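Now read the record:
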Amino acid sequence: MTRRMTPDDLARLAPAGHYMALRIGFAFPMEEVNALPQAWIEHYTRSRLLLHDPVMRWGYAHTGIIDWTDLRHQDPQGVLAMASAFGLRFGVAVSVFDDNADGQRSLANFSRGDRDFTGLEKRLLLTYVTRRHTEMAPPRNLTAAELQALCMVKDGMRLKQIAYDLGVTEGAVKQRLKNAKVKLHANTSTQAAAMARQFRLI
């Protein structure tokens, strides 16, 4: 069995930092990890570099993995040169996309200050981002009854009111919410409802 990559592995592979936006929906990702140097984050934000960043632009238009050096000719604003000044001298961009009409995209970039990434390292990073993207895909096995209960939780209704409105016992509602929490890997009904909304299931 292959060992899964950990945050410590990522820190060793990309010692200059990394950024991941997982399952980007209409506007925001389900999860965002920004482990880039704070000084670079502040400069990037203050200078509004997102609009000019060839790494992000490539990620929204392609899938797979690419070296930053292959994007330098698409960088008229010199974003990659600026990144280099903050220690992000070598990097790769990763993009994963669901191949369907409702597809979501995950983007990541990983950086080093000392050398290019090896072929093996690039395969490991692409595999890691692809796995994280897949793991966060919305579950397809929630029942209509479970989704209905989650929708009512989202609307702020209490257990007793949900049971009354649905014409079932409180125990039945509890079971539906319990099943939904398990399927969504949520700790509470409120969290499950929020996740179902984020997945656009309700």
